[in-house]
Amino acid sequence: MPLNIKIALAGEGGQGVQSVAEILTEAAYRAGHQALYIPNFGVEQRGGVSVAFVQVSEQPVSAPKFTTGDIVVALSYRAVERVKQYTGAATTLVYDASLEEEVREVYGDQPRKLAVPALEIAQKEMHPRVFNVIILGVLVGLTGFLKQQEVKEALERQFGHKFARDPSLRDLNYRALERGYQLGSRRGAK
Amino acid sequence: MAAKPIEGEQRAFMTGNEVVAWAALAAGADIMYGYPITPQNEIMHYWTRMAPRYDRGFLQTEDEISAGFTTVGGVLAGKRAFTATAGPGNVLMQEAMSMAEMMRLPTVVVVTQRGGPSTATVIYSQQELNLTCFGGNGEGLRIVYSTSSHQDLFNYTIKAFNTAWKYRFPTFVLGDGYQSKMREPVTIYDPATRGIVMEECRPMVGLPGIAGIDREPAHLRNTYNLEDELYDRLTASIKDYQAMIPEVVEWEACAVDDDEILVIAHGVVSRAARAAVDSLREAGIKAGYFRPITLRPFPEEALQPLAARAQRILVVESAHGQLERQVRASLYGLETPVSGYLRPGMGITPEEIIGAVQQTLRS
């Protein structure tokens, strides 16, 4: 089946949702796919639920937003409720494992779900700042349209100036990506 | 002399606001005047970052009234000048754009529509169609290009400068907040590599010689004493405008040979309309697609035969009937029933349009 994937991501401002979308679409574009990314934005400078709409396809993408996502990602308590409108029966709901209760409450028995302990991994094993890179890895693993190397190059373009100052950040980001990738691809293969 | 901003052609993945800044640079714009407003801000940000490298100017004014009038001033001085705004800023700019209409000044304004009326949302709408086409206290002697993609934003920003300077009517690129903020692939290029020659910009004030002796006076007036004087001036402008229409009017259409229902949309919504029509055709429903690219002048002559052939017309827009009103006015006398899927300030997806078409065909 030709590639045509729609992903909606939502989290609190500052969780890095928009960066994930930007890196994912930038990498997809560089890998030769058609890609479109649009953030939602309001009058507030910070706070509020941040939502990103991502589409990757073989054909040029039509409308910037969509009715139902193939993958919907909720990374905060408020985001769980906020993204309900973009989910359908065929949608895979990806969420942080800490939100299990809210997800059960709002989605009941949504057939396709993937709980990812990204927050816990980031806090205990890595660094809170790579939480979103774990999520990025999950999406790369789950969707399978990008090679890890292509994502690493996109990370380099996004954070290269930070890596230059502190090379250990590169390793940290790569580990986060790899860890997320494992979590996502295990599910994607099923 | 500074190097060309773009050598040859380049593929890029960027936001629409960035595309506009690159297009203005590539078109050889001399100066941008502006006042910040979302979702237009990054046009200014990118312009101010890049302009000094290519000896271009920027002036941040105290408000949009001033940004409009300084653009008028830049143009009078013979500069390829532009500004960009949205929503309430577009409202304030109408004063200056009316003056540009009166005095036949080739101003270029990029509008990134946001929700209205008033402050409303900073996000998106198609509610600035009326304002951009007819916002002045005059006859709407303007050219308005409605873009649907980053490629359009690039192409039509360049084209706007040439249309403005060739025909001497204020020219607008009507985008929206979605196009401003989204990222998608685009090819940016040096206009010369596509055979595009930029119209020459000449000053209208400070000309050499003594007016009335060495040369005709410039007579740049926005004030007239007598009704007859104004009438003569406007009649001449209206005649010029009408003569220009066949040369600048643009539209696109597809699947209109045997369509039972013609879907009409402009701007970013036309992408969803096109996708919906493709899907409907695959499902065996005879849907057609029409997109006005110039909203002013409106492509009436192109639309009329297509509308006459169709059995139904569905106008789809992120406003409450601003496009539908233009369509109805163009088709006066035709009996094809017209209905609208009207979502003021809301984005529209292909799925919604498919649903609206099916509902229209059932009714």
Automatic annotation (TrEMBL), chain A:
EC number(s) reported in the record:
1.2.7.1
The chain positions of domain Pyruvate/ketoisovalerate oxidoreductase catalytic read 13-182
**Keywords of the record:** Oxidoreductase, Pyruvate
Top-level EC class as recorded in UniProt: oxidoreductase
Q: Which GO terms describe its molecular function?
A: pyruvate synthase activity
User: Does this UniProt record's set of keywords contain Oxidoreductase?
Assistant: yes
For this entry, the protein name equals Pyruvate synthase subunit PorC
Q: Which organism is it from?
A: Neomoorella thermoacetica
UniProtKB/TrEMBL annotation, chain B:
Q: Where is the Pyruvate:ferredoxin oxidoreductase core domain?
A: 260-341
Check the record and name the SUPFAM superfamilies matching this protein. Thiamin diphosphate-binding fold (THDP-binding) (SSF52518), TK C-terminal domain-like (SSF52922)
To which species is this protein native? Answer: Neomoorella thermoacetica (Clostridium thermoaceticum)
Checking CDD domains in the record gives: TPP_PYR_PFOR_IOR-alpha_like
What InterPro entries does UniProt report for this protein, alphabetically? 2-oxoacid_oxidoreductase, PFOR_II, Pyrv_Fd/Flavodoxin_OxRdtase_N, THDP-binding, Transketo_C/PFOR_II
Q: Which GO terms describe its molecular function?
A: phenylglyoxylate dehydrogenase (acylating) activity
Tell me what this protein is called.
Answer: NADH-dependent phenylglyoxylate dehydrogenase subunit alpha
Q: Name one Pfam family in it.
A: PFOR_II
UniProt lineage = Bacteria, Bacillati, Bacillota, Clostridia, Neomoorellales
Q: What is its EC number?
A: 1.2.1.58
Q: Where are the transmembrane segments?
A: none
